[in-house]
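hey so i finaly got around to running the thing on RNA exonuclease 4 from Salix viminalis. pasting the sequence first so u can double check i didnt mess up the copy paste, my clipboard has been acting weird all day
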Amino acid sequence: MEHLVEHMRTSYHSVHEPMCGVCKKHCRSYESLREHLIGPLPKQECKSIFSIRGCRFCLTILDSPNARRVHQERCQLSGGLLASFANLGLRDSLTIDNGYARGRQVVALACKMVGGGSDGSLDLCARVCLVDENENVIFHTYVKPPIPVTNYRYETTGIRPEYLRDATPLRQVQKKIQDFLCNGEPMWKIRPRGGKARILVGHNLDHDLDRLQLEYPAGMMRDTAKYPPLMKTSKLSNSLKYLTQAYLGYDIQTGMQDPCEDCVAAMRLYTRMRSQNHTVEDYPLASDPQNRNNFASWRQSELERMSPEEMFAISKSDYYCWCLDS
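ok and heres what it spat out for the 3d tokens, dont ask me to read them lol
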């Protein structure tokens, strides 16, 4: 029991973790759950049931093989986006509504970088795209970098020198996006719950915002590269390309890459994670003041008398689950 208490104290198991639908094992990430079900050394009982009734995208166990077939067809999304984005011109539908729209608004952002510096290795934002929750492109423009471009990386970006010659200056793009995200709310006043500012979704957002020279509160960002359930078992980030193929069922970033396609993939991953049906709790986070003494050392004797189920009931998550946005 002493070892179990110590394990529960450091593992932060909660209702928000991915869980095996067969043996109810709690996993830190979906990659860990995938290894448990179909990895090199899976649990055989779980593997055999998953092979018959498991969805290979969301890793859910269904009631029957037929239910699995119907579910998996719905769970696998279609790519087919590049054709609609191929001839996309400049677009600017950014509006500040001061929070009058119903519910918290969510937008996804992605950038494409060209190279600067003597060897072309310095990332410079040359194209930026934003999509709304319905996958509509609300902003798309080429960006004129503040320093000369030495490598256009045409094979992956498709960007030519003439596209940037009369492009929008970086400072102007940065201000327009910042104002749109804040939505009439001062930066210092933005808070994670409530308020008018928009939730920002993306992959490796810190890098994109750094290249845009834009600041935004971490509590308002939903980064698919840093969300614990979507990370590797080694706690490193998965690529957006891998996440889209593994969890949405289609390929992106084949050949020339489009930031609008990246936006849609990140938004779809976010909405899928947000739609997880988890138990509603008043205080779901281990950092909430009400939970800070749940596994305090002075409660050791009391904790050792608890059953595993009772300990799990007071164990809380150490990360913000996106289901709490719904």
